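User: Here's a protein and a ligand (N-(iminomethyl)-L-glutamic acid). What would the complex look like?
Assistant: Let me lay out the input and then the predicted complex.
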Amino acid sequence: MRCLWRNACLATLDGATPWGLVGRGAILTEGERIVWVGADTALPALPGADAPLEHDLAGALVTPGLIDCHTHLVYAGDRGAEFERRLQGASYEDLARAGGGIRATVAATRAADDETLYRAARERAVALMADGVTTLEIKSGYGLSEAGEARLLGTARRLGRELPLTVRTTCLAAHALPVEYAGRADAYIDDVCAWLAALQREQLVDAVDAFCDRIGFTPAQVQRLFSAARALGLPVKLHAEQLSDQGGAALAAGFGALSCDHLEYLSAAGVAALARAGTVAVLLPGAYYFLGAARPPPVAALRAAGVPLAVATDHNPGSSPVLSLVLMLNMACVLFGLTPEEALRGTTVHAARALGLGDRGRLAPGLRADFVVWDLDHPLALVSRVGHRPCRRVVCGGRERP
Ligand code: NIG
Ligand code: FE
């Protein structure tokens, strides 16, 4: 089926003009794809017999579908009590070392049945979708056993089957050391390396991630994990330099990582390594805000080095219980100094790249017909407001969501 969406303010994010803006524009879709984008007045003649279904958008803003390229969406339990303890002075690291943090969520997740886990994750996915998200990355990392990680990744795959959006899965078994491996981190990493082949065979994993930090895993352990991923042809990503500089970004860049995420403590050498490798820097203003972090990532240096900047929610129960990617657009500007256009590119063009997806993130012929109609008339309005819910209509793979 062909559809013509006309009389829109298009932020195509394609080409060199600001926002790739087309003031009075049209998009023609056929099946799952965009076949034509341009000014209404330049629309080619469309033969009557084959006339597409037409939608007049009355000047509304249209952007590519938003891509949340970093979330930990599948978990059970609540960490509100930890939030309160942090307000009283405890740090995220203190709580983790005392057995809370990620491990508290692992315990709650292991105790939850499949359906409870699925329903909670689905509710979160639906909230993100209502904010314009059409592609969602979901990490495991609260199972920390072969079966537990497979269950979380399988839950993520089910969301992708049952909801109108694309889900990409990332195995984050190297998120924290499970209690049953206390004092045996190297043995745990050996086991995680061995799990990857089966997870891949069951088509549960699109990429491999790890948490490289004082309360996570060492660079040497990450290196072993990434070598195992590389041997299987799985792309890698890394939680790097969030709480301290471990040199994780340079290590990941050496493996041609799709992305390095967080990066508050990234060094100049780390910036240069990301630039050389073409690795995307995924900025997570929600975690920075929610943890009251001490320093922002080195955005000016990343920009100067030409590193692509993506922006995501990092949704998780401990460091970023955020369910609005639109809010992250604003926070990326106010907290990290991105320009409004960089922020929007960070949740579209560069977020697609952080997931290794070349078929989306812009409005251009040949790409997937994933786009959002906003109750706004310019992309600046999308980024410059706080707490609004301007998403009106979403087209995903050429079909309008009910
Ligand atoms: O991206 N830093 C590691 N992982 C998550 C937090 C997970 C949690 O606290 O449950 C993050 O911030
Ligand atoms: Fe994360």
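Summary: The pocket of fe (iii) ion (ligand 2) is lined by residues 70, 72, 239, 314, 316 (CB under 6 Å).
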